[in-house]
Specification:
Layout: E1 10-15, H1 19-22, H2 35-47, E2 52-57, E3 97-101, H3 118-124, E4 129-135, H4 137-150, E5 154-163, H5 171-182, E6 185-187
Parallel strand pairs: 1-2, 1-4, 2-3, 4-5, 5-6
Helix pairs in contact: 4-5
Length: about 190
């Protein structure tokens, strides 16, 4: 496991490491494997005094992405439920910065930047590079990374700390290729497949 060394303009962004994506209604294969490398990164960033952001789906019970509302997914990460909680064992830093997304019933929001104020918070802290890990490679991680790049941030993805849904075989690998093509770098370790 490779732990990143935070720079003076870096922030860590942990994407959606929530119960429903690890053991619940929309569990990702080997999702729990992201916890140890993310904990190491969280500890490194906290020790360096660099900000740690944690995004989470925070859906209303009638969110448009749910199958019973015509969307593609089972009900997941409903605000205030145990499924929306961070997974046990994820070591939150002393001063976590939470990002709640997809909070409106009529709006899909895969990216942690979509309607959240994350960009403003990062700029207020002088962040130039975002180190990203979490779930899922082919949805929220890729959309977050691509939005960050469009907004002018450098993006480094923690290869050991991402896992894909792979609704269609190869979706995770295609998401990695999209991130690389857009300019993201992948920190050493196992790339999600």
């Amino acid at each position: 496991m490779t732990t990143p060394r935070p720079g003076p303009q870096d922030a860590l962004l942990v994407v959606d490491v929530q119960n429903d994506f690890v053991t619940g209604s929309l569990a990702v294969r080997r999702g729990a494997d992201v916890v140890a490398p993310l904990n190491a990164a969280i500890a490194a960033f906290a020790a360096a005094g660099r900000p740690v952001f944690l995004s989470r789906d925070w859906h209303p019970p009638d969110h448009r992405s749910f199958a019973d509302r015509g969307g593609p997914w089972p009900v997941h990460c409903v605000a205030g439920t145990s499924g929306a909680d961070f997974v046990p064992g994820l070591a939150l830093p002393p001063e976590p910065i939470f990002v709640f997304k997809a909070t409106r019933p009529d709006v899909d929001a895969y990216s942690a930047f979509d309607g959240t104020g994350l960009d403003r918070e990062l700029r207020a802290r002088g962040v130039k590079r975002i180190v990203v890990g979490g779930i899922a490679t082919d949805y929220c991680v890729v959309e977050t990374a691509l939005d960050a790049l469009k907004l002018g941030y450098e993006v480094a993805v923690l290869s050991e700390a991402i896992r894909a849904v792979d609704a269609k075989p190869g979706d995770g690998a295609r998401a990695i290729a999209r991130m690389r093509a857009a300019g993201a770098v992948f920190l050493p370790g196992r790339a999600d497949d």
